[in-house]
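Thread title: Can someone regenerate the structure for this chain?

I was given the following input by a collaborator and told the matching structure tokens would be attached. They weren't. Posting the sequence so someone can regenerate them.
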Amino acid sequence: MKTTMLIMAAGIGSRFGGGIKQLAPIDDSGHIIMDYSIHDAIEAGFNKVVFIIRRDIEKDFKEVIDDRIEAVCRAHDVEVGYAFQALDDIPEGNAVPEGRTKPWGTGQAVLAAKDIVKEPFVVLNADDYYGKEGFRKIHDFLVSVHGDNSFCMAGFLLKNTLSENGGVTRGICRVDENGDLTDVIETPNIVKTAEGAEVNGTPVDVSSNVSMNMWGLTPGFIRTLEDGFETFFKESVPENPLKAEYLLPIFIGQLLREGKITVKALESKDRWFGVTYAEDRPLVVESFKELIDSGVYKKDLYSDL
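Best answer:
Regenerated them for you:
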């Protein structure tokens, strides 16, 4: 069965202090975080990889990714594709608001791939490391029999996703007794403290499950997402034309509240980490070294596939 990993790599990375943070090496062999996600996805059984990027980073991106990653994928019968997120790729009859430079968000990023993703897929951020368990669980879910509106997500413990270097935004999940997601509360500026974490001085339960934008979705979802993008332009953009964002967790949360979909929350005990701030990179480099030293990955990363 064909299954796709859709990697959102179009982010500007302004908090990273300039440059293209998705392409920053994080081990002695020059691998980037995406290498580890690609490894884990192939190991789990995914057989198609689609990168969502911007045209202005295409040259730099392909210099880092293209030959090396495509060779690995070809060796394992994995198809590779590219999709391009663009500010002016919006519903027909609309115009980009004057002065708007901010991308439209993760919902629009997925829509950029609507013409090339025709199979169940996992979508994730390029600059996040998710671990192996989430890929395995989501792949197993996607290849089992489910309805077109039955989705899943990998949930991570909040305490395993915080930055030492500043506030982060997380989708805090509400899950029922059957393990089904009931809501996602997008929560900005969660700051790590000595006691745990807080938002604007209010403590937050660090054992909460959070969404790190790792969703298992179906092709039918893309049609629903496209309809939602039109509504977003009618309702949200006029209210905040320069900053409104079409975000996957918010849209999925809305569909849940309306009873239009189900989402199985698949808890992963793997530690998540990523590069939000430039100061995060040394910890990420050290974390990958520990994973290699402990035998989770080979130094020659793809040699065990």
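The mean pLDDT is 91.
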